[in-house]
Amino acid sequence: MEKNKHKLVIIVGSVRDGRFGPVVASWVAEQAGMHGGFDVEVVDLAEIDIPLALPAASPKFAGDDYPRPAGMAALTSALEGADAFIVVTPEYNHSYPASLKAAIDWHFTQWTAKPVAFVSYGGAAGGRHAVLHLENVLTELHAVTIRDGLAFPNYFTAWQDGRPLDPEAPGYAKTVLDQLAWWSAALRSARDAAPYPA
């Protein structure tokens, strides 16, 4: 990783058959690559073993001894090494997918004192209900949620050939990425200077 770049992990939150998430994540990764401030990794939760049943101990207190399944090692490593995250999520019944909640709950310190931005898609609300719930959850894990985000209402008619039809979308993406880069630098410097007092 180049010293002046931040490690950005883009998480595809949906594992549903026929999901649109990988299309959105691919476009977001392209925008992040063009931005120039990030080394980008896309993590697709559909490719990872994420059980719903959790161990008795909390990952907050168990630390490195937390007994995660071997199939989750790549996810844990990606989260641990990230300076920043973008969560790509649909909206299911006014909230976000169970797969995303499970992936979050299997971890704790990996999110701490790191910035998270959101890209959502859905019907009329564009997935904003899912994002509102995610903001609450990730704040509990001491992550820093970015105010600005991208939401794609009625994505089924608003995208064509893997790209949003709204000509303003790349500009909105740049705003999100600029803010994410700023927070990435600030929080990485802070983590390097002193342990976060969680």
TrEMBL record:
<dbReference type="InterPro" id="IPR029039">
    <property type="entry name" value="Flavoprotein-like_sf"/>
</dbReference>
<dbReference type="GO" id="GO:0010181">
    <property type="term" value="F:FMN binding"/>
</dbReference>
<feature type="domain" description="NADPH-dependent FMN reductase-like">
    <location>
        <begin position="7"/>
        <end position="155"/>
    </location>
</feature>
<dbReference type="GO" id="GO:0005829">
    <property type="term" value="C:cytosol"/>
</dbReference>
<dbReference type="Pfam" id="PF03358">
    <property type="entry name" value="FMN_red"/>
</dbReference>
<dbReference type="InterPro" id="IPR050712">
    <property type="entry name" value="NAD(P)H-dep_reductase"/>
</dbReference>
<protein>
    <submittedName>
        <fullName>NAD(P)H-dependent oxidoreductase</fullName>
    </submittedName>
</protein>
<dbReference type="InterPro" id="IPR005025">
    <property type="entry name" value="FMN_Rdtase-like_dom"/>
</dbReference>
<dbReference type="GO" id="GO:0016491">
    <property type="term" value="F:oxidoreductase activity"/>
</dbReference>
